[in-house]
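Please, structure for the following, as tokens.
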Amino acid sequence: MAINSHEILNYLYLGREKLYQSVFGLLGFWPVKVYLSLLFTFNIINWLLAYFVNQSVSQNLVVLHYNVNLGVNLIGNVSEIYVIPTLGLAFIIINFLLLLNLHPRSNFLVHLLLGFSLLVNLFLIAAIFSVYLINFR
């Protein structure tokens, strides 16, 4: 069985066109535009706060997690603070990719998935702010 390169290129072209149609169809829904603008704003705030904490630290080690009952749980390198905004960006991308497959079926899932990403990014902003308070208070 020979592999026909023209068929492979045809499938790739049709797949790319279907991807464009689904992305632009999803972006045509106005709540998606509002959610994505808020999500990317909050994620940029996450990155800026992580950069601020990274630049403010004078040593290599910082307290990354503090528990009220046990005290300091996690001490790590200052560059590990960038895991938090990366996690927020991963939630945005994964939920958007899920939405590409699920959008034609339900508009409720748009609000559910993107609202969850918004909530996760808000909690991650609070996490970075708490890391800042723990280290510089």
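The longest helix spans residues 108-136. The two ends are 69 Å apart (CA to CA).
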